[in-house]
Amino acid sequence: MPSEKQPKTNDFIRWLFAQECTFVTGAAQVDSLPSPTLPEIAFAGRSNVGKSSLINALLGRKNLARMSHTPGRTQQLNFFLLGQHLYIVDMPGYGYAAVSKAKIKLWSQLIQDYLKGRVPLKRVFLLIDSRHGFKSSDKTIMEELDKAAVSYQIVLTKSDKSSAEELAAVTDAITQSLKDHPAAFPTPLLTSSHTKEGIDSLREAIVELVSL
Ligand SMILES: Nc1nc2c(ncn2[C@@H]2O[C@H](COP(=O)(O)OP(=O)(O)O)[C@@H](O)[C@H]2O)c(=O)[nH]1
Ligand SMILES: [Mg+2]
User: How far is Cα 58 from Cα 21, in angstroms, rounded to an integer?
Assistant: First the structure.
């Protein structure tokens, strides 16, 4: 692997994201998390926001994040190991209308426990559908992130579905409301898993965060 001093060139980024990526574990409670030896980058968002598609596009794989869909895994923190370098954490999707209060409570508890004091967690990328902007369940998790002082950045998904004017408007509105969220990165990242817009920027952001 390249030395620590190596600048983060495009070659390095390409090399990193071409490493083998394997599903390691799904944790339903924080006491079954992997030992905190590697940096972690987590992805969160409402169900159907495009999280699995984005993780697959990021890692250049077709079906990796489908592992998180297998029965019993949808309410877990799913850990994928990229090379031997970092964990990509697929957090459970939220906002299902049909989920019981008891399940929501369990999920919230898992998220809160994970966000509180998880030292290797470098950043949460919070996915928001660029057509819809923030929903109330997004605001809830942003408050958790602010409270836990976990660095997070909004990633707008499905940019291919809106016009440039619509995207500019949602980007402005989100940038404005992020001013009230102390742990949030000030600007959102615009992405599409279909056109691959923003995927390179997301990779660059991750490489900067994990400082390999
Ligand atoms: N047009 C478009 N559709 C997308 C994009 N990403 C995901 N989708 C679609 O949105 C739906 C939900 O995507 P999925 O990745 O399963 O979302 P998840 O529930 O958040 O994991 C699927 O029908 C995807 O094909 C995108 O970038 N552009
Ligand atoms: Mg998914």
Answer: 11
DSSP at 78: E
Please give the domain boundaries of the chain with CATH numbers for all domains.
10-210 (3.40.50.300)
Which token pair is 160?
A: 């291919």
Distance 16 CA to ligand 2 centre (A): 23
**Ligand 2 ion: Cβ-proximal residues, 5 Å cutoff:** 51-52
Atom of ligand 1 nearest to the CA of 161: 1
Which residues are bridge partners to 152 per DSSP? 124, 184
* Cβ–ligand 1 contact at 78 (below 6 Å): no
Q: pLDDT tens digits, residue range 20-69?
A: 999 999 999 999 999 999 999 999 999 899 999 999 999 988 777 666 66
- 3-31 pLDDT tens trace: 555 556 888 899 999 999 999 999 999 99
| Nearest bound ligand to the CA of residue 56 | 1
pTM of the model: 0.93
